[in-house]
Design goal:
Length: 195
C-alpha cells in the first residue's frame, strides 16, 4: 500500500506488510530525491571556485533558483539545499576562502550583521524557539563544503528532534525550499541590516 502526500507528490509511504520478507511493523518513507545528496552530486572537491556551489550561487542572476535569500556587499544569505530544519540559512562570503582567519574585517562584520538579520527575519516569518549558529572548519569538523567558509543559522523549535533522523535517517520538511526562500526574501529588510 503506497500513499502519496496530500499534494500528490513527494515521498511514498509504504506499509511494511506489503514488502518482501518478514514484516517488521515499520512503514517506509521513500525519498529517492535524497540520493543526490548521499551520492555527493555537485559536492565540490577542494579544487576551487569552478566546482563550488557557493561560488555558483554568488555568480548567478537567478536568486530564486540558487536559493539566495539576500545579498550584502561582501557576503550573502542562502538556504541550505539539505537543511537540518526548515529555514536553515547559511551566510557565505562572496570570496572563496576556507578559514575564518582568512576573512577581511569587512567580511567578519557583515557575517555578524547578516546573522543578526537572519535571526530577526526567521523569528518574524517562522517563530522559532531558538537557534543553532555555527561554522564547521574543515571536513574533519563536519564541513560538507570545507573549501568555502559558511556560517549556519538553524532555527529550532521545541520537539523538532524526533526519531526520524536517528532511526530512519529521514528528515521531514514541512515546506518546499522555494516557498521558504520566497517568504524569507520577502521579509528581509531592504537595507540588509536589521529585521
Amino acid at each position: 500500500m503506497a500513499d502519496r502526500g496530500s499534494d500528490g507528490g513527494g515521498a511514498d509511504l509504504q506499509d511494511a506488510g506489503d514488502l518482501a520478507g518478514e514484516p517488521d511493523g515499520f512503514g517506509r518513507l521513500w525519498t529517492p530525491h535524497r540520493m543526490v545528496y548521499i551520492g555527493g552530486q555537485d559536492k565540490p572537491s577542494d579544487a576551487g571556485e569552478a566546482t563550488c556551489p557557493f561560488c555558483r550561487a554568488a555568480a548567478t542572476d537567478d536568486d530564486a533558483a540558487a536559493l539566495v535569500v539576500a545579498r550584502g556587499r561582501t557576503c550573502f544569505a542562502v538556504l541550505n539545499l539539505y537543511p537540518y530544519n526548515s529555514g536553515h540559512l547559511m551566510l557565505v562570503p562572496y570570496r572563496h576562502v576556507a578559514d575564518y582567519t582568512e576573512l577581511t574585517e569587512a567580511e567578519v562584520s557583515e557575517v555578524s550583521a547578516l546573522t543578526r538579520t537572519a535571526m530577526g527575519v526567521l523569528r518574524e516569518v517562522m517563530a522559532p524557539h531558538g537557534f543553532n549558529l555555527g561554522m564547521n572548519q574543515g571536513a574533519v569538523a563536519g564541513a560538507g563544503i570545507a573549501a568555502h567558509l559558511h556560517q549556519h543559522v538553524v532555527p529550532r523549535w521545541a520537539g523538532d528532534s524526533n526519531f526520524l533522523p536517528i532511526v530512519a535517517r529521514t528528515k521531514a520538511m514541512p515546506e518546499l525550499l522555494g516557498d521558504t526562500r520566497e517568504r524569507l526574501a520577502a521579509a528581509w529588510p531592504t537595507d540588509g541590516t536589521d529585521a
